[in-house]
Design a protein that fits this description.
Number of helices: 6
Helix content: 25-40%
Bound molecules: zinc ion
Distance between the termini: 19 Å
Shape: globular
CATH class of the largest domain: Alpha Beta
Radius of gyration: 21 Å
Number of strands: 11
Number of domains: 2
Structural class: alpha/beta
Length: about 240
């Protein structure tokens, strides 16, 4: 079974539920995902759709309330505001002709895009990702020199809930969406992952290293708790990638 959609009736209105079968899932999962702007039912392989839907029907009120509270997605389109380092930039289509600045550039509080308007969303996405790569690479460099560790490879992804991760081999992985967060937040996440190359844990020694780089790490941490999921509203509702 591939991706399916089920419609559920509630007292308050209709709910659309994406159904996904996952070989990794251990039990039936139900969540409201800001990234897809909707609700998802995850079925472990071997569990029937009907059992899953039966479970979902016991949670109709919860589903409805959480779906109603979901902020609207913000596609990358003309006049939409997309944050860059926490500063909202308004997307402006500047005509089809390629400019000397390339296909996308920032001009004060505008994010200027040229070319076929149908490709605007992808262009903005590519630009943000490239910005994220530049900023994250520079900071990884600075922090790794400070801690005398070696960063191997940096990968940008779009994970559901993690902002960064690292491997023992020195590979770091980050969410490209961090480029939309305030600069101190991006600084903190990069410092956090680089610090793991010295301390592969969250021990007091690890936090001491983080404090050395980011003296007030509580502020970016609480920013992520409060506003992090909101970053998933931006852009196309791309296929979910963990
Ligand atoms: Zn960590």
């Amino acid at each position: 079974m591939g991706r399916e959609i089920a419609l559920l009736q509630t007292d308050k209105g209709e709910i659309s539920l994406n159904i996904r079968v996952s070989a990794r899932a251990q039990r039936i999962g139900l969540r409201v995902d800001p990234r897809i702007g909707g609700a998802e039912l995850v079925l472990p392989s071997g569990v029937s759709k009907n059992s899953g839907l039966k479970f979902a029907r016991t949670k109709l009120d919860w589903l409805y309330d959480h779906l109603s509270a979901l902020p609207a997605p913000i596609p990358f389109e003309e006049a939409a505001e997309v944050p860059h380092f926490g500063v909202p930039l308004m997307i402006r289509h500047m005509g089809r002709a390629r400019s000397q600045h390339g296909p996308v550039w920032r001009e004060n509080d505008a994010l200027c895009v040229t070319g076929d308007p149908r490709h605007m969303s992808r262009r903005v996405h590519d630009w943000l990702k490239a910005q994220a790569r530049t900023e994250i690479s520079q900071r990884s460099q600075v922090w790794s020199e400070l801690l005398d560790v070696t960063v191997n490879r940096i990968t940008l992804r779009d994970p559901r809930s993690r902002w960064g991760s690292c491997s023992v081999g020195g590979d770091l992985s980050f969410s490209w969406r961090l480029i939309m967060a305030p600069e101190t937040v991006l600084d903190y996440v990069v410092a956090h992952e680089v610090a793991h190359l010295r301390e592969m844990n969250h021990s007091p020694r690890f936090w001491k290293l983080v404090d050395k780089m980011i003296p007030d790490s509580e502020t970016p941490k609480s920013w992520l708790r409060l506003h992090g999921s909101g970053l998933h509203r931006f852009g196309a509702t791309s296929p979910v990638e963990d």
